[in-house]
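Final report, results section. Input specification for complex C-07:
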Amino acid sequence: MREQLRLDLEGSDPYGRQREGGPGLPRGRLLRSGLVALGGVVVGTAAGLGVGRRADAAPSRRQDRQILQFLLRLERLQAEFYAAAVNEGQLEGELREFAEVVGAQERRHVELLEERLGAAAGEPPTFDFGEAVANPDRFAETARQVEELGVAAYIGQGANLTPRVVVSVARITSVEARHAAWIADFLGRNPAPRAADKAKTARQVEADVRRTGFVT
Amino acid sequence: MNGCGEREERIEPELTLGELDRDGALTEAIAETHGESRAEFLRKLALGSGALVGVLAAPPPAEAQVSEVAILNYGLGFEYLQSTFYTETERVGTVARMDERRATWARTLGAHERAHVAILRQVLGERAIKKPSFNFGGATETPNSFTRTAVAMEDLTVALLTGQTPRVRTPALLAAFFTLLTVEARHAAWARRIAGFQPVGAPLDQPKTLAQVDRAVASTGFVSTLLPRTTAAGRSPRFTG
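Structure output:
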């Protein structure tokens, strides 16, 4: 199933419990894995996306706005993805519940970010999710990857924000992580594969989004 | 963002939980964000009173420093609580009586929380508070009581961490905070699904102040308080939670 995916956001890992953090692994390996996992933490900036600079772009209101715009693009994609999947009517049981509950939360995130940004929110793009919303298996795996992308994106920007907005963003960040864990557990994967999560820079996130082809 | 505005206005002087990673890992992350090698970072970390001050880069006023140390120490207290809880549950054989899915979950969370303790102790050096003694009553003795307690503990951790983010001003530490926040949120969602609850609640997680967290912890009777009255270095953190 993974081969069909257009997103590839993390290494192949079909059995979560074999990963670091799972029981029974030798400590040395745990440590190494943790180091690798954390190597991705970057204090960069979303400013001018594409830059992904390391370190010390001092938080500012202007930078806050750029980061919120970046996060809004991601939230809009997520919200539309779930809306389209529910609209297709192919989902059943817990997967349908997941799409409805999480979709509503992503829409709320979009509204909150739009409120905060005002005119700077801009117009939403149009999307085409193709098979990813028509086939339940494809939907579930794509949802997992989209949520993981959201988690990595939020972590990557957290430290670039001013205290004025950071708590609001943190409150969304943890919800994105809950979404990721929910769908991972549903799929039989490890919901918390690492003791500390990885970050992605804005540039990496934007590249992942482009590769999906979802934004038309 | 609704509600967030007011919340930011009345931030109390409290602490946080820092959840950090297995030893070395978070340190690596922090060093990474500063563009230093791990060795350089560790050298700066040097144990001792200057530890955080040295690493955490050009600190603004002294009080902010104390506050960050206090935040990390509160986090350490919380991680001691969690890791001891999970470890004891394994030790008394409760995990061994769980089905495979639940046992994997319990062991994974235990491994993560122990890693978080190790790294927090490393970051804090001699300022790290000592491990309090805990009494979990019967909470570790049956899979059901364990699971219910774990759900509450993980949700509480998320509330604690989100509430403290504005107090962490050092970029490297804030970055680390976010990497741990999402792990605790994953634990919480996983715990809730195992326990038969919906993994997510509201569209925004609700932060708790340090005082609220401490009251919640005290109400369990597991420990009288996690609030360190003084740090190991003998300084009183300034907080009123």
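Chain B touches chain A through 66 residues (CB under 8 Å). Confidence is low (pLDDT under 50) at residues 1-66, 230-241 of chain B. This concludes the modelling results for the funded period.
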